[in-house]
Amino acid sequence: MDHLNFKAAEIGATLSDERFRALKDRLRLNLITAQQKALSLARFPIVIVLAGVRGAGVIDTQNLLNTWMDPRWIESHAFDGPSPEDRGRPPLWRYWRSLPANGATGLYLGGWHSEAIAAGAKKGGLAELKARIAHIRAFERTLTDSGALVLKFWLHVGEAANKAATSAHKVDPLFGFRTSDAALPPQPPYKAMIKTAATLLEATDSAAASWHVVEGTDDNFRRASVLTILEEALTAHIAAWEERGKKDDVPGALPPELPAIKRTASLAKLRMPRLSDTAYCRAFPKLQHRVYAAQKAAHAKGIPCIAAFEGWDAAGKGGAIRRLTYSLNAFNFHVVPIAAPTDEEAAHHYLWRFWRQLPPAGGVTIFDRTWYGRVLVEQVDKFTRKPEWKRGYAEINAFEQQLVDSGVVLLKFWMHISKKEQKRRLKEREDTSFKRWKLSGTDWHAYKQYDDYLEAADEMLARCSRVPWHVIPGDDKHYARTTVLDTVASALEKAVKGR
Fold it and tell me: 313 φ, ψ to 5°?
């Protein structure tokens, strides 16, 4: 990969003040025009990473972008080391939650790559680097597959220039006062950093999110190079989106053909055990105590937990969640009901709203419906086109892998009831005044599509089983609720014992 050759960015390339003045007005006009066009189109976010070595002009480039473009629609992010808020969450959590909305620009100093380089440059950091690279590749592919413009710049200078970089600020003849890169987080030793950076850049370089290595020795050359690349890429991306609009085409890359799956059993054949009132009354208090004790111990050890509930309308998700929350310290859990996305949520990737709700260390987040809507309701009711929901399986698997890799206890529940039992419960809600509020306008509509949802659910369970599902037979509410509590208690007890 010749374009990732650091030595080629140490040759002393320059651009005179006169030549820079000759092109800067055109560049500035084209950039602000393209930015305004992207805003009015509002179909994709612009994600810019400015990484590199100290002294290569990272901060100056950020300031220039905010000066030449409309800063109201640019969100700049410069993250230091992990904060207490980051503890217990995946490393990419803070980047996911800060992603710009469609039409806006996110500018990341160091990006999610600098942390990975710092970790990998440490002695024995190779395993950590490999794990982070896998997650970074999945993250960037998720963004570009959904149509985002991702531009990554590595601003480079040689070792001597890096050592010469000081905290002194400069007065630039073209731009006046400007700050240095001294505000950037401390970098690893140069040789270790460059070796690790070369590995990371090569592993995370792709056609849709390629790296641009730019020499930073000369300010004019660096500024002109970065701004030209940005202007050309943004203009081309807008043109591609406008062409898609004419064809009514889907954004991003088409997913590869899904591999054949082996379905071990259909939900339609699930056995429905029952639990007597006496057995329920005897087991329920003991299970509550187990859940409380296990979560208290998990909280003390900083172990986060996610309980994700999916299933049919009237399958008992709400009842199971209420019994679960009875057993938890109110200070330690948060219930997130998921409905149709708000305007803000719809302007982001569909996983964005779930990343924002991840629990802190020792906390519990309970999702009442989940990210699986992408491959369920969005598929069955055709809210999303086929290439988009087909990509969802891989995107969801990558998301969940990051959760468990960061130490989250992830429990996925499918609350299952038969078609006959669903009809009975919906009719009961319709006929009972204090239950009527539970009945929405879409419940009977979904009931009529039971067989379509059954097929989609069977495929979902088969394709997204890297993190195991807990399929809960729900025709008997007592059995379903005690099974959920026992599953939560057992998982937390196991996690506590393993830490």
Answer: -60, 135
